[in-house]
Amino acid sequence: MEVALLFVILFGLIALRVPIAFALIASSLAILVGFLDTSPKLIASKLTGTLDDWVWVAVPLFILLGGVMGSTGVTRRLFDFAQAVVGHFWGGLSHVSVLTNTMLSGMSGSILADAAATGSIVAPSMRQAGYPPGYTAAIVGAGAIIGPLIPPSIIFIIIGTIGNISIMRLWLGGVVPGVMTAFALLVVGYWISRKKGFPHEPRASWGKRSRTFLIALPALFVPVIIVGGMRLGYVTPTEGGAIGIAYVLLLSFTMYREAKFKDFATVAIDTVKTSGNIFFLIASALTFSWVLSVAGTADAVVDTITSITESPLAFLFLVNVVFLFLGCIIEGTPLYLIFVPFLMPVVHSYGIHPVHFGVVFAYVILIGQLTPPMGLTMFLVCSITGADTTEYVRMGWPLLVALLLVLTLITLFPTLVLWLPTLVMG
């Protein structure tokens, strides 16, 4: 009874457009005071206590890393290299968008950051070349899903921390699905471009390709430094983020020479604002999860779900359907924060590998963020490109089908997720 009422209050407040963090706190407070006869003072202590973990410092550091890369010319260098390599294929600039996101994903780890960074560079070029705004928005948004999959990833830091899963294994587990996603989008993008007659760029000379590669190469070492340092045991995720920022700033001041202290101050202020919002959301969502546990929901959830099906695969597909829908209407971060602790006992009861579940769970919610009616990434890319959602859906549905196909494959075949973590870490 308490759990059902908790979710009724929560979704009712969200429907009334109450900010999600406040809706989580209000629904938690209502259940604590009204049904569990617990002091409301516990809410304050839980809000602050949930953030008492050193690993959370990695979140603002990786947000800052993505901002520094965008303001110091690193993203532009990656774009130039991608254009020299794949720009001459049909729909060349759409392939450039996917390839740029693939390279950029190893540095920011955020779907919104990658969509904003790539969209601000690719969208004007695609508009000038005559691409429809709806297709531009769709390919930029779909390409940005690669960002949280290839390490380092903010999403996997969150899932790993609250789900007690190895962050390094989650990062490595996202690599193969990320590469599969890039390949699928390149193939479907080429098919759409040939069918619609989209333009392509002149073929770049080998000299230009070599030159842009050498210029972009130092930036491509960012994920190598971070992930390699973690694998060798020299750094934690938090320390890796700090080292990545220092390395990018060193490149910007010595090699690319586009860094300005004024721009860095702006990025730092934006990082503080974004991090404040994220941490308030983390605290409120984890408090909500704590209320669920106090209400004794974990055992009830395990019993209810396992009574529906005894098949781990059926459970995973059930998760895909439910959270594809929820990802369309609720921003991704609170979904991770609320439901990962809620579902982990079920995952263990089915014998599903936590890394496999974490990657599949992240992937389905990322797709939801691209899907109407309320997908946050969809709104962002439509805003950048000037497309309306109807045109976005009409031009982008084949890309969504490609993403759903990849989701189906990684759900059916856990080896696609677990092979690389097992190879690297044993």
**What are the secondary-structure elements, in order, as H or E?**
HHHHHHHHHHHHHHHHHHHHH
Helix content: over 70%
Q: Can you tell me the number of structural domains?
A: 2
Radius of gyration: 22 Å
Q: Would you identify the regions where 5 or more consecutive residues have pLDDT less than 50? A: none
Please give the largest β-sheet. none
Gross geometry: globular
The share of residues in extended strands comes to under 5%
How many strand elements?
Answer: 0
Mean pLDDT: 81
Structural class: mainly alpha
Number of helices: 21
Q: What is the first-to-last residue Cα distance?
A: 44 Å
Per-chain topology:
Layout: H1 2-15, H2 20-34, H3 41-49, H4 58-71, H5 74-86, H6 92-104, H7 111-129, H8 133-144, H9 154-163, H10 167-173, H11 175-196, H12 206-231, H13 237-256, H14 261-294, H15 297-308, H16 312-329, H17 332-350, H18 354-368, H19 376-385, H20 389-412, H21 415-425
Helix pairs in contact: 1-2, 2-14, 3-14, 4-13, 4-14, 5-6, 5-12, 6-7, 6-8, 6-11, 7-8, 7-19, 8-19, 8-20, 9-17, 9-18, 10-21, 11-20, 12-13, 14-17, 15-17, 16-17, 16-18, 17-18, 18-20
